[in-house]
Amino acid sequence: MDRRNFILALSAGAALLGAPPARAECGGPSALDYVEELYEKQVRLQAQQTPLDREEFLELFSKGMRALMRSPRRPARNVTLGPVLNAFFGWGVLPGIEVTTGKPRLVSGQDEGPATIGVPLTYRGETHKVLVHVLLEEDGWRVANIIYDNGKSLLDHYREMAGR
């Protein structure tokens, strides 16, 4: 490689560092669009009582989150019965419970990601809000974490289950 090619390669690399993600340039969905579509689908599946199979479910999450979800569970000692966690809606949302969503809003980040999207939810006559952290991986948008209105998060839930 001569000096001229080196400078061309260096300047091309520098130009790529400042460029927005290629997916956004190609007209792919924004973070907000992705989360809105994701929650519309989850509401439909909830109403039909047809959850995703395990692999379809895991595919919605980031690589790091999937690794944590697949990690071995530590044996629980003092287990108390309590509400079950629905990953998308929160604690105590059992299959068949009617859930409606409001208009998702960008809370922080950029529409090209990473971003945090606030999703208003209503179930059992109460209004709730979840914060969905999404990021753009090579193969599309993925959920990195979901924070529920009680302050607990999906990431913390799986960390606790894995004993981390």
Task: Describe the model.
- The chain is of the alpha+beta class and 164 residues long.
- It is 37% helix and 25% strand.
- The chain contains six helices and seven strands; from the N terminus they run H-H-H-H-H-E-E-E-E-E-E-E-H.
- The chain has helices at residues 3-17, 22-25, 31-48, 54-59, 63-70, 154-162, and strands at residues 85-86, 90-91, 99-101, 105-109, 115-123, 126-137, 140-147.
- The strands form two sheets. Strands 3, 4, 5, 6 and 7 form a five-stranded antiparallel beta sheet that branches.
- A hairpin with a 2-residue loop joins strand 6 (126-137) and strand 7.
- Mean pLDDT is 82; it is low at 1-25.
Largest sheet: 5 strands, antiparallel
Q: Report the count of strand segments.
A: 7
Our estimate of the beta-strand percent is 25-35%
Q: Which of globular, elongated, flat, extended, rod-shaped describes the shape?
A: globular
Order of helices and strands: HHHHHEEEEEEEH
Low-confidence residue ranges: 1-25
Which bin fits the share of residues in helices? Answer: 25-40%
Return the structural class.
alpha+beta
Cα separation of the termini? 48 Å
Radius of gyration: 19 Å
Q: Number of helical runs?
A: 6
Determine the mean pLDDT: 82
Per-chain topology:
Blueprint: H1 3-17, H2 22-25, H3 31-48, H4 54-59, H5 63-70, E1 85-86, E2 90-91, E3 99-101, E4 105-109, E5 115-123, E6 126-137, E7 140-147, H6 154-162
Antiparallel strand pairs: 1-2, 3-5, 4-5, 5-6, 6-7
